[in-house]
Amino acid sequence: MCVGLAGYLVYQYIVAVTEPAFFILTALVGGPRHGYGIVGEVAELSRGRVQLKIGTLYGVLDRLVGDGLVELDREEAERGRLRRYYRLTGAGRHELSAEAERQAANSRIATDRLRMFQPAKAETA
To answer: What distances in angstroms separate CA 5 from CA 9, 11, 13, one per listed residue?
Structure first.
């Protein structure tokens, strides 16, 4: 919460961004993708560290849609199956940018602290 113009209280909406959500948002920066396209892009972006199962993907997508960070772009029939394409919203782009900055700042803090408190090297006899 912060004080805005004319003294009114303004509540900032803060969304907890999990690692899968972070990579899903990142995957959608390049444009709309369908479920399996998102799964593949997340695996590539994370260098294989994040392997989304379809159930997990759609659970996270449902939350991101509910939070207004992602929206349905279109639906297409492909070999008798309906493919849903999702896209990043302006709020999603803003949230991803803020989360990337937060992670970078945290990384700098940890790196600086690790440099500051390096263990003393054992002396050799």
So the answer is: 8, 13, 17
- What is the rounded CA–CA span in Å between residue 108 and residue 51? 27
Smallest Cα–Cα separation from 51: which of 42, 38, 64?
A: 42
Contact 67, 16 (CB under 8 A): no
Rounded to two decimals, the pTM is: 0.80
Lookup: tokens for 62: 């449902």
pLDDT band at residue 118 under the 50/70/90 scheme: confident
What's the rounded Cα separation, in Å, for the pair 43 and 56? 14
CA distance linking residue 49 with residue 68, whole number of Å: 26
